[in-house]
Structures are given as C-alpha cells and as structure tokens.
Amino acid sequence: MIKRISILVRAPHIDRAGFSKHWHDVHGGLVAQLPGIAGYIQNHVVEEFSGVAAEPGAYDIDGFVELFFPDDAARVNAFTGPHTKPMWDDEPNFLGHSTAYVIEGDWDPRRALTDAKLMLVAQGLRAAVDRLAERLRQTAAGAQIERNDVAEVVPRANMARGPQPADVFFHLRFATPDDAREAGRVLADTHDLSDGLERVAITRVVERRIV
User: Fold this and answer.
1) What value, to the nearest 5°, has the Cα angle with vertex 165 and ends 20 and 64?
2) Around Cβ 124, how many Cβ atoms within 10 Å?
3) Domain extent at residue 14
C-alpha cells in the first residue's frame, strides 16, 4: 500500500490538549470518510526531547498522521473533489499548518498500536540519514525500529507558509512509556546524533487508530 505521513501543527488559538481532542474526536471522523483510505493512525505528541520549536530552524510538531491507500490513484483521489469540503472547512478549528509526505515502498497498517513510541523526523543527505539509522540501532537497542524514507512532499497551496522539509521518519516502539521516555532523553543527549543533518526532532507520541 501507499503510505502518506503528515506533520500537524496546532492553530495559535488552541492548546495542545484542545488540539488533540478536536483532532481525534471531530476531524478524525471527517478524514475517515474520504474514499479509498485503507488505514488511518494518529500519533499525538505528548513529549518533546530536542529539535522542536525552541531551536532555530527546528521542527514545529503537535502530531503525525499515517494514512494508507491501496494505490497512488486512490491517494490522489481521496483529497480531490467536493467530498473533501467538510474536512477542509474543519481545519481552521484546530490546525495551523500541515505538511504531507509520500513514503517510499509498500506498507501495511499496523494491527497493534502503542503508547510507548518515539517518532523522529530529520532532514539531510542520505549518508547522514543512514548514520542516524545506525546510531538509533545502537542507542535504542530494545526498540522495534521502522524507517520511512520520503519519496515526495505533497504541495498545499492554502498554507500561509511553506512545507517543513523532511527526508526520513523513524518510528521506535518500546515495551513501556517509561522506556520510550528514557530513550528519548538519552537520544537528546547524544552529542553527534544530528551530525550531517539539517535538522532533527525527537518526540514521544501516543498512537490512536481511526481506520
């Protein structure tokens, strides 16, 4: 299946708790009604460790979307046409910015979700991303690690600012939330984690299945 990931940023008028509630309780159902969606997982950010918002050039992140489609035509069709109007109309109620990315390869939605997960997003040349992947394997040896390389950025003309550049996403799944939190702290303190990268962010997230 085709996989699409989005980085979501909350609107200025809403706090993260309100953003998360509206995204899950209201907007999730509107997206789920789009045709052709074979899987929809929300990743709600509950903790940030490095590279998010406070640092110059860093990422701004309140959530990650994972959407799955049977093929690329279904992906394009889902976001094209009058059936998308309720979804677009709802966005100003909670969403300030989003960037979507098509992921390389063939992916299936996971059956088991977790509240013990880190998500990393990074921008950089392939060699630097490969070094990051190796460092994650060394530092987070107890985690199940999934790498999603970005094939393309999906343009959105109606956003006030441009997309947040990204070349890779990593999903690190742990046995417990405490394990994920401790790994996030260790990774944030790893001085050479971002060597060769333009930017990197480490977040702890809770997964919620919509479809």
Assistant:
1) 20
2) 21
3) 2-209
CA 171-3-86 angle, to 5 degrees, is: 110
According to DSSP, residue 177 is labeled H
Confidence of residue 56 (pLDDT cuts 50, 70, 90): low
Average pLDDT over residues 124-131: 95
Specify whether the CB–CB gap between 160 and 97 falls below 8 A.
yes
Q: What is the DSSP string of 8-29?
A: EEE-TTS-HHHHHHHIIIIIHH
Distance of CA 67 to the CA centre of its chain: 10
Tell me whether residue 137 is exposed, middle or buried, using C-beta atoms within 10 angstroms of its C-beta: 0 to 12, 13 to 18, 19 or more.
exposed
Residue with tokens 């996989």: 3
Q: Identify the band that residue 53 occupies on the pLDDT scale cut at 50, 70 and 90.
A: very low
| Sequence-ordered list of residues with C-beta below 8 angstroms from that of 179, at least 6 positions apart, any chain | 116, 142, 143
Give burial (CB, 10 Å; 0-12/13-18/19+) of 133: middle
Domains in the chain, number? 1
CATH of the domain at 84: 3.30.70.100
